[in-house]
Amino acid sequence: MTGSTLEASLVRIRMSDPGTASRLPILHGTGPLASAEGTDLDTSYGRPYTLLPYHAQDGYARAPREVDCTAAILSNEWLVATFLPCLGGRLWSLVDRVTGEDLLYRPDVLQPGNLALRNAWFPGGVEWNLGATGHWPLTCAPLFAGRVEGPDGMPVLRMWEFERMRRLVFRVDAWLPPGERRLFVRPLLHNPHDEPVPVYWWSNIAVPESDGVRVLAPGESAYMIDHTGQVRTSAVPRRDDGYPARSTQPTDTFFDIGRGRHPWIAAIGEHGTGLLHSSTARLRGRKLFQWGTGPGGRRWQQWLGGAGAYLEIQAGLARTQLEHLPLAPGHTWAWTESYGPVEVDPAVAHGAWPRAVEAVAARVDEARLGRADSEAGGWSAREPAELLTTGSGWGALEVLVGALPYDAATPFPRETLGLEQEPWSRLVRTGRLPVSDPPAATVTGPIWRKLLEGQEADWHALLQLGLARLADGDEEGARQAWQESADLRETPWSLRNLAHLDRDRAPGLLACAHRLLPGYRQLTAETLAALIGAGRAAEALHLVDELDPAQRANGRIRYYECRAAVEAGEIARAARLLAEGIEIDDLREGEDSLDALWFAYQHAADTTEPLPERYDFRMHP
Description:
By secondary structure, this protein is α+β, with helices and mostly antiparallel strands. The chain folds into three domains: 5-386, Distorted Sandwich (Beta-galactosidase, Chain A, domain 5); 418-501, Alpha Horseshoe (Serine Threonine Protein Phosphatase 5, Tetratricopeptide repeat); 505-621, Serine Threonine Protein Phosphatase 5, Tetratricopeptide repeat. 27% of the residues lie in helices and 24% in strands. The chain is built from 17 helices and 25 strands. The strands form five sheets. Strands 8, 9, 10, 11, 14, 18, 19, 23, 24 and 25 form a ten-stranded antiparallel β-sheet that branches. α8 (459-471) packs antiparallel against α9 (475-488) and α10 runs antiparallel to α11 (506-516). It is globular, with a radius of gyration of 25 Å.
């Protein structure tokens, strides 16, 4: 073939459906994820108080099937890049036509796991992360995608969506110039608000791991985070640095790339070939994540769809993922990234660190990257000539209420307003939010809070007002609104929210909420956790005994049943559950529930059986 093409096509993927959003909004924030005491990192700025307005995406199971997904495929003479706008715009594969090899890692099965801010996440390809520390809220959500015309008719893929927590329009342009052996990607973030917005961005690149793969970046020092959760600094000039397969433990390594040095990162195999990622200067940070070769790390990779081992090389705006940067009012940040194959003398690539870094740096065409960045400015404001896929209706709602200026380059058509947005559209049109049970999907932001503050009091409007206040960090205002809502009509929604603000009363409040809504698994799980945490294991077991069969069969519910049985002294019941098997579909990364449960049972039963492999997800020695 000659030239560059862009086509929308169906690709067949074996996957478990990530599921729809929970009815329960996420009331917590990210919290402190590591201790940076003794370093020069500012990890307090930008950490969100809550993850509102998002609801958890936790309705998935481990039930893969063949699914046809709409893909956007860019091709030229050298590369084929496949994007999945239906799943967060993920760059799913980057095939080198010369070798026929995919430069990226893809799992055998796309299996969601609880690793993202909203829960559902899957490994593989290149993931875009905007919002706050962690995998972003839209990683398993559809984006808008369209075709933009570049110079000489070259097709450009544009993907965009409204990110609701930071209230920013996210946009990525991707193109493969004719004759170019690298893919260019240009993210753009614009702050349309009157206040600075804390920004977090990391491009997360999964590549296959093997004994001979070495990760290189132009840094002589790094910030390291391991299972202890303590950030420490380390020099990286040694001959044996950069080999993930030589470490048994999971580790985050953030290379400290000094100002003035061109930022890049590469994963080089034993034969001197691999993937090179570079960018313009704004994308300063570079990271290596490794699962480690221990049983927990290998178990996690199998759990997440396992196509062998993988590692992640990442690129971000800040030095580490514990930091956020202020995007000033009215300002725009854009940068250009390149992805492509690289080849280096293997003896040099696997020799002394400084010389290996020097050899890869010589393959980085900084001038070409700068020209690509400048050229992209020529089509930046163009309207997509063709819409390939549609995203959510939340951007259109923000345009409707006047909170987001209309931009033809990233249009949010009014036709995308759907059932989730309908109650809020009626508020804009009529001045009144209709009452609904279950409640309307959560909406936050200054303009929405103002509209809700002016509402005539009813239980539903007060419930939503409390959520808008909590998103602003106003706990007392949220408590008042939810108590008033409960006084007007006691609902599981207000009681559950009040439990979040009152740890002492939480078990009782959640038990009352559960009696009002006994068939909702996510609320059942929260209620069981609160009862067991308060030492009310017998009450938790009684609640389990009253559940419908579908809930009792759920792995998370079975875990709580077993834990309560151990604490209540019902050892035979716990032994039966453990022997039958407990599989928690949404096991959280780093969660030690299963191994802790096993050892608690062993202690209670006065036995010393070894931890079964299926329960060993330990990410620490």
